[in-house]
Amino acid sequence: MPDGDVLLSNTDGTILAQGPAVLVCECRGDGLDLAVHRVATFALVASLVVAGIVTARAAPFPILFIAGTWTAGATAALLAVRRRRRLHGLFRLDFERHELIQDGRGFRRTLPIQAIVGVSTPPASDTDVDEPGLAPRWLLLHLSTGEQLRLGRAPAYALGPALAFLRRAGVEP
């Protein structure tokens, strides 16, 4: 990751200010991606094995319905993970050049900075923290296309410097 003033650094990502007009955010997502890929690979291989056993007439034909269910579930999980992948990545918000660059896993896209319509910090619903001030929140960037990009995750107080940078750059909550 490039050098700059660290606004946030934790296990969920890093946010750096590179001068007064460039914000670099790295939010790669969670380990869900790897877990889904492993389970889906197992399910798809098991489905192929079951189909081979049925083809060899060593098992009754209705067993293929189980293999079909595994295949459908694995495919749906892989598609869901692929959609979530569009939320995360390495983001470079350059307010001087008026561009937002997203480097995700397997893709890269450049959007005009005018596509940003706002920023919010909703609670991260996938964690259980009893302390209200310490509960993690997402730093979400809202685009005019209706998409949301996850720039980072931390307690509200830790997201303050990044929010202040975005407000100075003209991004409203």
UniProtKB/TrEMBL annotation:
Protein name stated in the entry: DUF304 domain-containing protein
Domain of life: Bacteria
Keywords: Membrane, Transmembrane, Transmembrane helix
Spans traversing the lipid bilayer: 35-55, 61-81
Keyword check for Membrane: yes
